Structures are given as structure tokens and as C-alpha cells.
Amino acid sequence: MKILVVEDEKDLNRLIVKELESEGYVVESCFDGECAFDYLCMEEYDGVILDVMLPRMDGFEVLKRARKKGIRTPVLFLSAKSDIKDIVRGLDLGADDYLVKPFSFEELLARVRVMTRKKADVHENIYRCRDLVVDCNDRSVRRGERLIELSPKEFSILLYLIRNQNIVLTRAQIEANIWDSGYDGYSNVIDVYIRYLRKKIDSDSDFKMIQTIRGVGYILKDS
Ligand code: CA
Description:
Elements: E1 2-6, H1 10-22, E2 26-30, H2 33-42, E3 47-51, H3 59-68, E4 75-79, H4 84-92, E5 97-100, H5 105-124, E6 126-129, E7 132-135, E8 140-143, E9 146-148, H6 152-163, E10 169-170, H7 171-178, H8 189-201, E11 210-213, E12 217-220
Parallel strand pairs: 1-2, 1-3, 3-4, 4-5
Antiparallel strand pairs: 6-7, 7-8, 8-9, 10-12, 11-12
Bound molecules: calcium ion.
Residues 8-9, 51, 53-54 line the site of calcium ion (CA).
């Protein structure tokens, strides 16, 4: 994982770099906006920590130019500006997150983990929950080392569950996402497919991921 840190306060820049490196990230850093834009054009990063108030070009402008060039690197803005308008502006420009100074390094690291995970998902089109891996590139499903054969409908339902893992989904939500026609409220087709999925995904494993929430629907859980 490679992160770019852009912060003109030298001590803070050094501290962020040190913290990230101790977590195992590869880190590059610079101190002004123009330099940041050049770095972004030359290298592919898994995420950028971008200060807003910077010499030569501010963070918003850096992001605007980068997005215009088609650079999709996730961005976490850092700023002393707590004005809600600035936050909205940053997010509208396509930032992924916004952290107001002063912040704790614990929080910064947590947000960096979220940022880089998002990038990995979008980039690879692969979803994971514990040892279950759903790969949309070749539509393969694995639990641990085991390759699991699914029908197209089963795959669609599992994909919907894993994209929304740890969230309870009603039968109606699942139906609406998988079939174009509306949910008639009487059909038990979802229950039938869930039964098939359980057999294929969960039956050989101690941990059962697909769980029933009685009277509501289903959830794919990681713990
Ligand atoms: Ca600054």
C-alpha cells in the first residue's frame, strides 16, 4: 500500500509519515500543491492524505485537476477548516473523506484503512467476508481454498449480500435487487435460494455467515 502525504507543516508531515510507515505503508510526502499534483500524475497511489491550505495550489484545486485528468486515487482531506461548507465542497469535488485538525493518529489510521480498502474493492472488483471471496471479474466464489459453483441467480444474491455485509436485508430488498419485477409478498423464492446458498457456502464450515433474522430477512455476517 502506497500513500502520498501532502502537508506543508513540516513537523506534522513528518509525524504522519512516521505513523504510516510504522503501520507498514510505503509513504511519499511533499509540502505544496503543485508538487502534489505532479506526484499524482506520475505515480499510482492507494490513497492521498491532502491538506487543504497549501502553498502554490490549495488541496481543492489539486483534487479538481487530478479528477479532471481521470486520476481516481482516493483522497482524505486534512484541514483546520471546520466550516461545513468547506467539507461539503471537498466531498463534492470527489474526496472520499475529510478529517478536521486537530485529529488523533488513531483516527487518521482508521480512516486511511477505510480509504485504501475502498480503493482495493473498486479497483479489483473483489468482495471479501472472512474466508469467503466473491470475484466479479471471473464470477468465481471461494470459501477458503474451496471453489464454489453457483447459478447466476445464486451469484447475484450472494453478491448483494456481501456488498451489504453486516446489514440486515429484507426479502423485499433482495428480490427488488435481483429481479426486475416487484415483490409480491407471498413468494418464498428468496428463502429457497438462500437455502441453496447456505448449503454451498456454509455447510462445510464451522462459522455460518448467512444468518436469518426472524421476521425480517437475512444478513451476511463476518462475526
Ligand atoms: Ca496547511
